[in-house]
Amino acid sequence: MSALLSPSMLAKRWGVSTTLVYEMLNSGDLPGFRLGGKLWRIHLSDVEARENTENRPAPEAIVIIEHKPEPLVDRRDEIRERRNQTRIARMIGEG
């Protein structure tokens, strides 16, 4: 008897979302069965067969790009200076 995987276990194994696994099960793209009419289970042998037939990149071939956000710039002094200039311009114009 083949070992069984839950959708969340398969999602972790493949590095995809659990939602995608459920979509594949519901569409029939991935063979599985309902345990007790409710819980999905997938035979490990079906998973391994699919992994061996698909052209998927090896985990070492996947490149993770790290996002480096721009450093925050403190512009409070610049904003204060503009406010002061606006106030002075209003006072001169009203004078």
CATH architecture annotation of the domain at 1-57: Orthogonal Bundle
Cα separation of the termini: 93 Å
Mean pLDDT: 84
Total count of helical runs of at least 4 residues:
4
- Summarize the main sheet: 3 strands, antiparallel
* Annotation, overall tally of beta strands: 3
Fraction in helix: 40-55%
Query: What structural class do helix, strand and pairing data support?
Result: mainly alpha
CATH fold group of the domain at 1-57: Multidrug-efflux Transporter Regulator, Chain: A, Domain 2
The radius of gyration computed from the alpha-carbon positions, rounded to a whole number of angstroms, is 29 Å
What is the C-level CATH assignment of the domain at 1-57?
A: Mainly Alpha
Spatial ordering of strands, largest sheet: 1-3-2
Strand content: 5-15%
The ordered string of helix (H) and strand (E) elements is EHHEEHH
The low-pLDDT segments are none
Shape by Cα distribution:
rod-shaped
Question: How would you characterize this protein structure?
Answer:
- The protein is mainly alpha-helical and 95 residues long.
- The chain has a domain at 1-57: Multidrug-efflux Transporter Regulator, Chain: A, Domain 2 (Orthogonal Bundle), CATH 1.10.1660.
- The chain contains 4 helices and 3 strands, in the order βααββαα.
- It has a 3-stranded antiparallel sheet with strand order 1-3-2.
- The longest helix is centred in the last third of the chain and has 19 residues, at 76-94.
- It is rod-shaped.
- The termini are far apart.
- The relative contact order is 0.11.
- The model has no long low-confidence stretch (mean pLDDT 84).
- This is Helix-turn-helix domain-containing protein.
